[in-house]
Write a structure and sequence with these properties.
Number of domains: 2
Order of helices and strands: HEEE
Number of strands: 3
Strand order of the largest sheet: 1-2-3
Structural class: mainly alpha
Radius of gyration: 35 Å
Number of helices: 1
Distance between the termini: 105 Å
Bound molecules: zinc ion
Oligomer: single chain
Length: about 120
């Protein structure tokens, strides 16, 4: 009976050690896997945002590519400061629904209006 008990102890101790070892190995592998997954997700997110940026840049370029040699920022002839007095579009697509196309207002008052939405602009 006592022999069997000792034999049991002798067997249980290494078995427990092996289990503990396997457990810590598994934990380590799991942590490494989580790290790898996080890293991969981060890469995907970065790639997506780079693609979005590139798409936006291309859109912006296409919008400006209308055959006009823009003269942004001159504010000439009553145009908004960021608009091109030659073709009327703004350097950056404005917030809101309308991508304004500014035209000079007729008459004695210096100012401009958007030919699409009718918004008025009056220089200070
Ligand atoms: Zn222009
Ligand atoms: Zn407009």
């Amino acid at each position: 009976m006592r022999d069997a008990f000792f034999l049991g102890v002798i067997l249980v101790v290494p078995a427990a050690l092996v289990i503990a070892l396997l457990y810590s190995l598994a934990k380590f592998a799991w942590a490494a896997y989580q790290d790898w997954r996080l890293f991969r997700e981060l890469n995907v997110i970065q790639a997506e945002s780079a693609a979005r940026r590139e798409h936006k840049r291309a859109d912006r370029q296409k919008r400006l590519d209308n055959g006009c040699e823009h003269a942004f920022g001159t504010g000439l002839g009553g145009f908004p400061p960021n608009a091109c007095p030659k073709c009327g579009i703004e350097r950056e697509k404005p917030m809101g629904r309308c991508d304004h196309v500014w035209r000079r207002k007729d008459g004695p008052v210096i100012g401009s209006y958007c030919e699409k939405c009718g918004k008025q602009y009056q220089p200070e």
